[in-house]
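User: Please fill in residues for this 288-position structure.
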C-alpha cells in the first residue's frame, strides 16, 4: 500500500466505532501505516483522543502487523493554539513520549515525528534526546514535520556532525495543485522542491509524506476548492481530473493519491467512511 491512514479526527468528530471500522478495512486492504499525533484533535476535544482510539484498536490486532507513526511537540499547553505548544526540550519530549506510549498501549513507536519546530530549544538538545529513544529501541525511526528549509538544513548538518539518528520521514502539506502564492498556513508548511532535495541529499532513503492531499474532498464532484487554492488554473485542473475519473470509473481522490504516489511521495488521507476509503485507495493498492 502506497498510502497511509490519517486518524486526526478519531475519537472526536469521528466516533470510536466508525474509526474501528475504517482501521479494520484499511489493514484488510493491505495498509500498514497509521498516522496520529498527541495533539489530535485538541481543536475538537482536548488532544490525545486519536492516540487513545488507535491504542484501543491495537489491542484487537497483532501490534507488529502495523506501523504506528505519531508526533510530539505541538500539543498546546493551554489547550487552545500552537502558540503555547509543549515544545521539544528534553523534559517535554520525555513527558510526551511517556504519555503517547500509555495512550497507544504499546512499548514502542515505529516512527516519532517532531511535529512543529521549537525555536526556543537548541536543535542539538532535541535531536540528541530523540536519538537516545532510538538507541534504546523505544522509537524505531525519526521524522520531522513542518520544518523550514533553513532549520532543516541546520538539523541535517548537526545530524551528520554528531552521528545522530537520521531523518527517515518528513511530513509536509502537499497535493497535486498549488496554493495561491505567498500564503501563510500558520504552522503548516508546504513541501517545496528545495526541501525535498535537501532531505534526499541528507538521506537518500528518506520517505516524504504528504498530509492534507485531498483537501477535505475538494477534488470530488461535489467538492469545493478551499479559498487558498481557488484559482482559474486549479479549477481547470480539477475539471480535467474529474473527467478522467469519470472515464476510468474511479473517484477523483483516487487519482490524486495515485499521482502523488507516482511522484515518489507517500500520501496520508483520512475518512470516516469505509466505502470512501476503498474508493480512494483503489489505485495506490495497485502501485508497485
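Assistant: Residues filled in for all 288 positions:
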Amino acid at each position: 500500500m502506497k498510502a497511509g491512514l490519517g486518524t486526526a479526527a478519531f475519537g472526536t468528530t469521528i466516533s470510536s466505532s466508525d474509526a474501528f471500522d475504517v482501521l479494520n478495512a484499511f489493514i484488510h486492504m493491505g495498509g500498514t501505516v497509521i498516522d496520529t499525533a498527541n495533539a489530535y484533535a485538541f481543536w475538537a476535544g482536548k488532544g490525545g483522543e486519536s492516540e487513545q482510539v488507535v491504542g484501543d484498536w491495537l489491542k484487537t490486532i497483532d501490534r507488529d502487523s502495523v506501523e504506528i507513526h505519531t508526533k510530539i511537540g505541538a500539543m498546546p499547553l493551554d489547550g487552545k493554539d500552537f502558540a503555547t505548544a509543549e515544545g521539544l526540550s528534553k523534559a517535554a519530549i520525555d513527558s510526551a513520549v511517556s504519555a503517547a506510549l500509555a495512550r497507544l498501549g504499546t512499548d514502542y513507536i515505529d516512527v516519532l515525528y517532531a511535529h512543529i519546530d521549537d525555536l526556543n530549544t537548541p536543535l542539538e538538545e532535541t535531536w540528541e534526546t530523540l536519538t537516545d529513544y532510538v538507541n534504546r529501541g523505544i522509537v524505531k525511526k525519526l521524522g520531522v514535520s513542518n520544518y523550514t528549509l533553513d532549520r532543516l538544513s541546520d538539523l541535517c548538518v548537526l545530524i551528520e556532525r554528531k552521528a545522530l539518528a537520521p531523518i527517515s520521514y518528513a511530513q509536509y502539506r502537499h497535493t497535486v495543485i498549488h496554493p495561491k502564492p505567498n500564503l501563510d498556513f500558520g504552522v503548516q508548511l508546504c513541501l517545496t522542491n528545495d526541501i525535498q532535495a535537501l532531505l534526499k541529499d541528507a538521506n537518500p532513503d528518506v520517505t516524504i509524506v504528504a498530509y492534507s492531499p485531498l483537501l477535505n474532498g475538494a477534488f470530488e464532484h461535489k467538492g469545493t476548492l478551499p479559498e487558498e487554492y481557488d484559482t482559474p488554473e486549479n479549477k481547470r485542473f480539477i475539471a480535467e481530473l474529474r473527467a478522467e475519473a469519470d472515464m476510468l470509473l474511479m473517484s477523483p481522490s483516487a487519482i490524486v493519491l495515485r499521482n502523488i504516489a507516482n511522484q515518489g511521495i507517500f500520501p496520508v488521507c483520512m475518512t470516516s467512511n469505509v466505502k470512501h476509503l476503498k474508493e480512494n485507495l483503489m489505485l495506490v493498492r495497485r502501485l508497485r
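For context: The chain has a mean pLDDT of 97.
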